Prior knowledge:
With 211 residues, the chain is of the alpha+beta class.
Amino acid sequence: MPAAAVKLYRYTNDEGNLVIDYQVPPEHVKKGYEVLNDKGVVTKVVPRELTEEEQKEADAQARLEAEALAEQRRLQEWDESLLLRYSTIEDIEAAQERALMDLRIRVSILKSNKHSLKQKVENYQAQAADLERMGKKVDVERLQAIEDLQAEIAATDRAIADRNVEIDEVNAAFQSDIDRFTVLLEMVEFRRTMMAQKRAEEQEKRVDPRR
C-alpha cells in the first residue's frame, strides 16, 4: 500500500524569511501560504486575508465587473432581438407607427367620452339653473348626477394623461431601438468593408507574390 502523500507548507515568518514546514502556525495563516508536495512543487496557493479597506475595494471592483457583464448581456440580447424583428430602420418606424396609432385611437375615444360627459354635466347644470330661476330647489338626484359625472371626467382626464405618458415612452423606446439598430448597421458595414479590403489584398498578393 503506498504511503500517504506528504504535504508541506511554505510561509513567511516574522523575520521575512521563507519557511517550509509540515504545518503553518496559526498566527501566520492569515498572511497566506503555499502547499507543496513531497517533490517541492507548489500545488496550491492560499492568499493572505485582505484588510477591511482592501476587501471593500475588491467588493466594489467585483460589483463593477458584474454590472459591466450584465450590461454586455443586455446589449447582446437587445441586438439579437432587433436583428430578429427588423431588417431596416423603416421596419422599426412602421412598428412604432402601429403602436402609436393604437394609443392615439384610445386617446381619441377618451376625449370623445369626456366631451359627452361634459355635455351631460352642462345639461344637468342648465336644468338646475332653470329650477333655481323658478324658485324651486334642485333635487338631490340631479346634484348627485352632476357630481358623479364630474368624477368621471376627472378619471377620464387621468386616463388621457396616462395614455400620453405611454405615447412618450413608446416614442422613447422606439427611438432607442432606432439608435441601436443604426449602430448595428454601421458595425455590419464596417465589417463588410474590412473583409472586402482583406479579399482585395489577398487577390493582389496572388497576382503579384512579391507584395
